[in-house]
Amino acid sequence: AFTTVAPVLFLTGQYAKWSRNINRAIWAAFGSSTQIASQAFSNIRTVRAFGTEAKEVRNYENALQEILERGLINAIASTATFT
């Protein structure tokens, strides 16, 4: 029984370190998406004047896609670690 506890604890510790880094990246991406949205809203007249609404929406969608991808990687790794 003790021969299996050490590797499990080691793997759990390694996952915790990796997960901390990916969660920091997720929160940084959240900050980036919030910044993109607030800049677009604060400059809405300029965005409309130049007709770049679609570009701003794409920028925001790309930022959200990054969050989703990193979250999925974290969820899959979590499932593999704790199953």
Would you mind describing this structure in some detail?
- It is a single chain.
- The chain is an all-alpha fold.
- 92% of the residues lie in helices and 0% in strands.
- It has helices spanning 2-42, 44-49, 53-81.
- Helix 1 runs antiparallel to helix 3.
- The longest helix is centred in the N-terminal third of the chain and has 41 residues, at 2-42.
- The model has no long low-confidence stretch (mean pLDDT 91).
On the 0-100 scale, what is the average pLDDT?
Answer: 91
Gyration radius over CA: 19 Å
Q: Which spans of ≥5 residues are poorly predicted at pLDDT below 50?
A: none
| End-to-end C-alpha gap | 18 Å
Shape: rod-shaped
State the main characteristics.
mainly alpha, rod-shaped, 0% strand, 83 residues
Question: What's the helix and strand layout?
Answer:
Elements: H1 2-42, H2 44-49, H3 53-81
Helix pairs in contact: 1-3
Short description:
The chain is mainly alpha-helical and about 80 residues long. It contains 3 helices and no strands.
